[in-house]
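Re-run with default settings, no changes from the original entry. Doing this only to confirm the output is reproducible before filing.
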Amino acid sequence: MSNRISKVAILGSGVMGSQIGAHFANAGIPVILFDLKIPENPNAIAEKSVANLAKLNPNPVASSRSFQYISVANYDDSLEELRSCDLVIEAIAERMDWKLDLFHKVAAYINPQAILATNTSGLSVTEIANSLPENLRSNFCGIHFFNPPRYMPLVELIPHAGTASHVLPELETFLVTYLGKSVIEAKDTPNFIANRVGVFSMMAVVHYAEKYKIPFEVVDQLTGKNLGRAKSATFRTADVVGLDTFVHVVETMTNKCQDGFEHSYVIPEWLEKLIKAGSLGQKTKAGIFRKDKDGIKVIDTINGQYIPADKKANPDVLAILQQKSWADKMVTLHNSSHPEAQFLWSTFRDLFHYCACLLGEIADTPRDIDLALRWGFGWKEGPFEIWQQSGWQQVSNWINEGIASGETIASRELPAWVSSLKDGVYVDGKHYNFAKQSLVNLELLPVYKRQIFPELLLNEKVDVKKEVLYENDGVLLWHTGDDIGILSFKTKMCTIGMNVLNGIDEALTIAENKCQAMVIWQEKDIFSAGANLEEFGFAIMMNGVEAVDEIIGKGHQIIANKIRYSSIPVVAAVKGYTFGGGCEIMLHCDAVVAALESYIGLVEAGVGLLPGWGGTTEMALRASQASDPWQDLTKRYQNLALAKVATSAREAQEMGFLRESDTIVMNSREVLLIAKERAKYMALAGYLPPIKGKFSVFGEQGMATINALLVNMYAGKQISDHDYLIAKNIAEVMCGGKVDKGSIVSEDWVLNLEKARFAELAISDKTAARIQHMLETGKPLRN
C-alpha cells in the first residue's frame, strides 16, 4: 500500500482545481490550493474558491470537517511550501502556454521525489514534460479527473516516454484506496480514452440524428437508460457539461486527430448559434433544452425559438431496446426500416468501427476503453462488450458492408485483428491485447486484492468460493471459508419485508452457531432503501393495528434485540442508500464500515411515520450518552422530524447516524474486506454482547419544550396537521413519554412507546395517502 503521499498541492484554485483539492480533503489529506496573488489580499483568489465550494451542486465537500484540511497560498509568497508536498497537481485552464509558464515558475521548488502531474483533459503530456527540468521529468505524468471529481469515479493516468516505471502504479494505488477512484492508464493522445470515444459517440448521434431527422428529445429517450447509459443521454449531457466545454473537446479532436473520422468532428451550425447567443446549457439555464414554468422546452434549430419537448420515441423501437439480449436488439435494429431504428444501428456501427480503428493508438486493450466509458460516461457496458454480445463476426460483417456502401462516417477499413478473433475480445476470462496481438490474462496491481469483488467485464470471473449457509427468498448467508458470515438481501433495492426479517432471524441463529462474526453487506450499490412500503402498507390497510403489532413486533425482535444482543459481533458494511429500516439495521450493529458515498437517514416522517424498528429509541439512547444530552437530542430530533439524509458518511458522523468509532473508507469496493477484518478483530478480542441498559430521559418537560416550537411552526403554517402529529409523536418517544425529567427508563419502555406512537400514525388515512404517493411517484407528499 502506497502511503508516502501525505500532503498535496493543487496549482490553480478554479472550479476544477478547488474540487480536486476538496476531495483530497474529504479523504483527510492536507492540501494547499495555490493561485495568483492580488495586492489587497495575497490569497484572496484561493480563499474565494474555497468559500465557493459550499455553493456548488452537487456538493464537492463531504462534510464541514473537510475544510480544516484545506489551506491557501499564492505563487509569489508561498512557493517554498511546495517542497513539503508529495504530490503536486497543476490544474489551471487548458492553455498550453499558461501551463508551461506556471511549470517554469514553480519547478525550482518541487521536491524531486514528489510526483508532479498536470490535470488536463487532452493536452500533450509529452510537450509539457519536455519543458521541465531533467530532474523532474521521471516523476511527471498526466492525470485527468472527471468532473465533478468527488462523484465521477474515473481518473485517467497518462505517462510520457520518460515517466519512471514506479510512478503510475504508485499513483494508481494511492488513488484507488485513498481517493476511492477507478483508474485506467491512457496513452498520450488527444482527449485520451474516455473523452475521445465518448465524444465521438455523441457526435455520431448528432450526425445521424440530423440524417434521419430525429428530434432532440426523442434522441435522448433512445440513447439514455434504454441503452444502459446515463439518464441524461446525449443532448442533456451536453447541456450539463456545458455546450462551450463540449465544443472545446470536439475542437481538440478536429485540430489534432487525423484518424479518418474527421467528418464527425464538424460542429453543426445550430450548436454554434447557441454558443454565440450565450445559451451554454445548464450553467446559463438554457442550451439545447430549457426549463420554464410551462415545463421542458427544446430549441427549434430552424427559427431559434424554444418549443415544447413533447415528441415521443416510437413504441416499436423502444420495444426493440427492451429485448434481453444484445444479439436480438442489434439484429432487429439492423433489419428494421424505421428511421429511429436505423439511427440507433448507425450510431452503434460507427462506434464499433471507431473503437476498432483506434485500439492500439489510444489504448492497448478493449478493457481500458470499455472501463473508460463505464466510469467516465456512466455506461452500463462498454462498446466492445456490446459488440461481442451482439455477435462479433456478424456485426463485423455488417460494419464492412457499411464501409463498402459508403454509409459509415469513415471509409477506413476495419483492422485485420478484428477478423482474426473468432469469438471477440473477451474469452474465458482473458482479454485481447493489441500490443501482444493475443488474448492475455487479467493482471491487476496488489491494491485490487482489497476488493473482494472488483469490477469485472464480459466473461471475467472473480475467484471467490462462496459456501452458502442459509437462503430464503429474502436473504443469503454465505462465507468464504474464514468463518465470517456474510448476510446479503436479495430484494429489489434491498428493501426489508417479512421475508427479509425472517431471513435475518434464521441466518443470525445459524451464524451464532457456525461463525465467529457476521457482516451485513449487499452486492448491489446500496445498503437498503428501507422497509417494503408496498407490502407493509397493504398489510396495514387490510388488518390495521393487528398488522402493525406484527410488523413492529418482528422488527423489534430481530433488529433492536437479536442484532444488537447477538452472541457474535455483527458489522454493517454500508454504501449508497441507507434509509429508514435499513438505517435502523445499521444503527443496531456493533460496528459500521461505511463508504464515503453513503447516504444515510431515518426518513420515515416523509411517509407519515416515525422510525419504528428501534431507530427512534436508539437516537434517544445515543443522545443520553452525549456530553450535552439536550443539545444532542434536539439535533437528532430534527434529523428525524425533518427526515434529513446525510449526504456522505462523514456527514452521517456529524449527524449522529454513525459513531466516531465507526470506520469510513473512500472506495466502496473495499468496504466488504475492511468490514470482515473489523469483525474478525472484534471476535479475536473476545467479543461479549452489550447488556440491556437504562438511560435518562427528558420526559414531559422535554416534550413541552419541543411542542412549543411545533405550535409556533403550526401557527405560522410551516407545517400541516399531520406534520404536527408526526413531529409530536417523535418528540414523545425521544423524550421517554409522560415521565419526569431525569427519569431512568429501560430500552423496552421506550420501544413500547415507539410501537404505540408508530401505530397511531400507521393507521391514519393521511399516512396511507403519503405511502401511496411515495409508491406511485417516488416523492414525498405534504398533506
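Residues 339-358 form the longest helix (20 residues). The first strand starts at residue 8 and ends at 11.
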